[in-house]
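ok, trying the design again with the full structure, not the truncated one.
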């Protein structure tokens, strides 16, 4: 918040406990918090950017398509979505994790179902995003993907 002292931030999380921790930060007077499920909460509109970290690797392709469309729609023209999250490093890994979800859900409290970078890009482009950059992180299984809302001009 030091680089953007006028920034206003809206944070959505399903965990009230996480939002309470955020409210203790010194910049909390510029943060609006919404407790709820990404699929049920109205994101609003006209954001310059949406930033997500380690929150979306629990959803299947069809769920991500719905969510990415919501993100696309809430951005201003030329708005950016920056997402750093876990990805499957191979198609085989992606398939195995999805199988685990579909066949052993009751045995696990928490199942990761990351998609490959290729599948992430496919969904993003399908809903209208232009992929700006895909960057490696210090962890091989995490990628930073920057996507831009296409301008509808002319």
């Amino acid at each position: 918040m030091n680089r953007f002292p006028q920034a206003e931030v809206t944070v959505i999380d399903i965990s009230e406990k996480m939002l309470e921790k955020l409210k203790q930060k010194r910049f909390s007077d510029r943060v609006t918090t919404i407790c709820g499920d990404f699929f049920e909460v109205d994101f609003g509109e006209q954001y310059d950017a949406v930033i997500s970290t380690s929150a979306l690797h629990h959803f299947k392709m069809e769920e991500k398509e719905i969510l990415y469309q919501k993100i696309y729609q809430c951005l201003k023209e030329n708005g950016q979505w920056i997402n750093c999250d876990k990805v499957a490093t191979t198609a085989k890994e992606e398939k195995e994790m999805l199988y685990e979800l579909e066949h052993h859900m009751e045995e696990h409290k928490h199942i990761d179902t990351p998609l490959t970078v290729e599948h992430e890009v496919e969904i993003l482009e399908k809903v209208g995003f232009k992929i700006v950059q895909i960057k490696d992180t210090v962890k091989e299984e995490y990628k930073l993907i920057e996507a831009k809302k296409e301008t509808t001009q002319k």
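Keeping the full-length input from now on. Residues 46-149 form a domain with the Rossmann fold fold (CATH 3.40.50.150).
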